[in-house]
Amino acid sequence: MEKDLFGICPYTTAQKVLSGKWSIIILYHLGKKTMRFGELQRQLPDLTQSTLTKQLRALEENGLIERKIYPQVPPKVEYSLSYIGIKFKKVLAELAIWGNEYIETLKDKNC
Amino acid sequence: MEKDLFGICPYTTAQKVLSGKWSIIILYHLGKKTMRFGELQRQLPDLTQSTLTKQLRALEENGLIERKIYPQVPPKVEYSLSYIGIKFKKVLAELAIWGNEYIETLKDKNC
DNA sequence: ATACATAGTATCTAAATAAATACTATAGTG
DNA sequence: CACTATAGTATTTATTTAGATACTATGTAT
């Protein structure tokens, strides 16, 4: 974990964890259930394998998700929300409500 | 507003609005009260004037905040949350709770 | 006449983030 | 022996985002 990345402000802390293009949607999918790498990738066809790997590593470093490796061939790796990742589901729920309202207001403006 | 930026998924939509380094904290400050440019900048000493301008323009383009210009010299411009920006305060509230919990879990790990 | 205050713009550079593409390891299967 | 499946890594390139710095306009006050 990088030093000094997180201070005492919950907002700037949250921003650091959430910035980027994929964190929220990945957390959403893992919030539904534990998934293997390939399964998650099929849910998210718009990012490449290497990008997904990086995003997952970042979320893992930040403590939001857990990575369980099964010593098998072919490899099996499962991703799931950590304790604090599970807590994030309450934010996701509000975000979903807000996001839908937001989309509605855009429609009203014919955007 | 850029075309095709927002689809039908509330999570990817929210991610687009929130990504970047400053959106959440700016929305938080404007959620407390309407502020002038300079006042907001004093709350956020870690970003330059030109960066703050860009962030505010982006939030305005995305419909989260409103910009009111008073025809005076020296100029006076007030920023405030829009209708949908006010709705975002519920997300901010959950984010604050979560962010504080997150900070606590980091402390437990001596990070 | 000069300086001040406010809210910018303009330009350039740097840093961060994401994407594209090719490559790898290995047990099991036909 | 060749082929498959899975979850990657490595490297390079492109794109996006943020930062640094200098500059602007103008009414009022000194």
Automatic annotation (TrEMBL), chains A, B:
From the record, give the transmembrane residue ranges.
Answer: none
Which UniProt key words apply to this protein?
A: DNA-binding, Transcription, Transcription regulation
The record's section on SUPFAM superfamilies has:
Winged helix' DNA-binding domain
**GO terms, molecular function:** DNA binding
Q: Which Pfam families match?
A: HxlR
Q: For the HTH hxlR-type domain, which residue ranges apply?
A: 9-107
**Which domain of life does this protein belong to?**
Bacteria
Q: InterPro entries annotated for this entry?
A: ArsR-like_HTH, HTH_HxlR, WH-like_DNA-bd_sf, WH_DNA-bd_sf
What is the protein name given in its UniProt record? Transcriptional regulator, HxlR family
> What is the taxonomic lineage of the source species?
Bacteria, Bacillati, Bacillota, Clostridia, Eubacteriales
